Amino acid sequence: MTFMSSYQRVWLIVWVAAALGACSTGPQVTRTQNVSESVEAPYENILVIALSTSFDSRRYLEKEVVKKLAGLGTQAVASTSMMNTRTPVTRQTFLAMVEKIEADAVLVTQLVSLRSKGTMTDMNPEATYNFRPTYYYDVWSVDVEEYVEPQAVDYEHSLVLATQLYSVLNKDVVWAIESKSKIKQDFDEQLNYSIYVDEADAITTNLSKDGLISQ
User: Distance between CA atoms of 84 and 209, rounded to whole angstroms?
Assistant: First the structure.
């Protein structure tokens, strides 16, 4: 009997991601700060910032938020469109961006928590059989060759993001929400981009609902 093995593929998340599962229930949004009474909404030119350890994850989310805002008639610029992986992620960097594009608001999304639970999954072995007759009546020779892979890991992720809207004029937070997502990731699933689309949709929908952007 011959055994053959392959490398076990496990995809890990950094933020909302680096690797994200194929099955998600969609973000559940909770308002953590009501719209400030001094807000000068609707805002018309927003700098969009996503904060995480993965530059690609930041870029993906910012891109989708900007796209959603544009669809709602609001001008927006992604911070990652004006920087690269070597640009310092500092207050001074973002203040320079605000001045450059003359933004009237800054939308900041960052990771609050990420919990992952892995479950070992047994792989089904595959076998081939070779039957040959022998010189004896009703006696057969059987060769069995079985191919077995190591166990795989299925993941379930709990992702929480916090989003705040800052007024450039007031220099303060005027609105905030928290979004929670449950994500299931099979052992052989690759990056699922839909989580960025879902998060962007949840953020911009609530901005519009609360009258912070044009409707």
Answer: 33
